[in-house]
Specification:
The structure holds two protein chains of two kinds.
Chain A: E1 16-20, H1 25-36, E2 41-45, H2 56-61, E3 69-72, E4 75-78, H3 80-90, H4 101-118, H5 124-134, H6 136-158, H7 173-187
Parallel strand pairs in A: 1-2
Antiparallel strand pairs in A: 1-3, 3-4
Helix pairs in contact in A: 1-3, 1-7, 4-6, 4-7, 5-6
Chain B: E1 11-15, E2 21-24, H1 30-41, E3 45-50, E4 55-58, E5 61-64, H2 66-76, H3 87-104, H4 110-119, H5 122-144, H6 159-175, H7 183-193, H8 196-201
Classes of the chains: A alpha+beta, B alpha+beta.
Family (chain B): Belongs to the GST superfamily. Zeta family.
Organism (chain B): Nelumbo nucifera
InterPro entries (chain B): Glutathione-S-Trfase_C-like (IPR010987), Glutathione-S-Trfase_C_sf (IPR036282), Glutathione_S-Trfase (IPR040079), Glutathione_S-Trfase_N (IPR004045), GST_C (IPR004046), GST_Zeta (IPR005955), GST_Zeta_C (IPR034330), Thioredoxin-like_sf (IPR036249)
Amino acid sequence: MAANSSDCTDKEQPKLKLYSYWRSSCSWRARIALNLKGLSYEYKAVNLLKGEQFSPEFSKLNPINYVPVLVDEDIVIADSFAILMYLDEKYPQHPLLPCDLQKKAINFQAANIVSSSIQPLQNLLVLNYIEEKLGSDEKIAWAQNQIGRGFSALEKLLEGISGRYATGDEIYLADVFLAPQIHAAITRFKLDMNSLSF
Amino acid sequence: MDSRPHQDTSGSFFSSSSDKLQLYSYWQSSCSWRVRFALNLKKFERLNPLHFVPVLVDGDLVVSDSFAILLYLEEKYPQNALLPVDAKCRAVNLQAASIVTSSMQPLHMLSVLKYIEEKVGPEERQSWAEYHIGKGFAALEKLLKDFAGRYATGDEICMADVFLAPQISVAVMRFKFDMSKFPTLCRIYEANKVLPAFQASLPERQPDASID
């Protein structure tokens, strides 16, 4: 499951490891960024449903027990946003942020709408709670509502700015956050993107 | 998620040397608070009240969302930098900011608490808030234990402080949260509290502050 590098020789490749859960959209953001930059990495699976994030080995690496975690030689970085900013600074090929300050700000806004306004409100912990207290139907309704509101905000934000991609004709940070979230909305929560009123 | 606008909000004018920076802020919003704190740290002066919740207007450029605003300010106005140069320390600051802005604040914002109160029950509201606040602070305590100096990630005030200090204040004031299990965070908070930049950013000092 390690990504393939297309741009660097073996000698030039840094020894990167990514601790990831296959279904975690936060982990997914990190995988996209690594692939965009042509960085190969060792994939270390952490099964959240089995509680592997609490294993002694992983806890030593990240005492907060979150995925994703990036290991670059002796540097350990947790949190998808921190990982992406670190990668963008250390490996500047295929930059994740445009030079233009306004567009850069929009990318930050889009990323944060996903990571603060949407993802935390439909993650496993929250959904399990709602399902336990209010049932499965309510859980789905809640998730769809939170995601729908977030997508409405994003639609407004990106109106007139998007091109082939979120903020123009190049892939940037907004796309890296957006794509996994849209995928989750459609496949896990059966959100009908056409039914949203923008 | 940044606060939804309230009907009775007003805001603050911050002036830069070019006199074109406007901050739309709500006095009680911890997200607005972060931005006020950062603007004060970067030595922008406040002028007059205006409207809403963190939206920054800088000439022709409009930025909303507190994290985006702070990162924008960091790029455009590098004085009193809030992100350190060291890669690891930088990452820790961003991680701390993310914990606050993604794992904590969205879970105890008003709309979510109202939902919990209405659908699950009034007694659940407080326990839900406390659970998520506690989880976030536990993570931050672990993260910053080995990094903190006088401030969150060393002896200079940085982005982590800007997110942490308002969050601790809100947790204690609004949710009566007991911080005694988090000695590192308490110490960081005490150091931040006395700063003029923090004092000037306090909710009760804002033009729109009122007694609810």
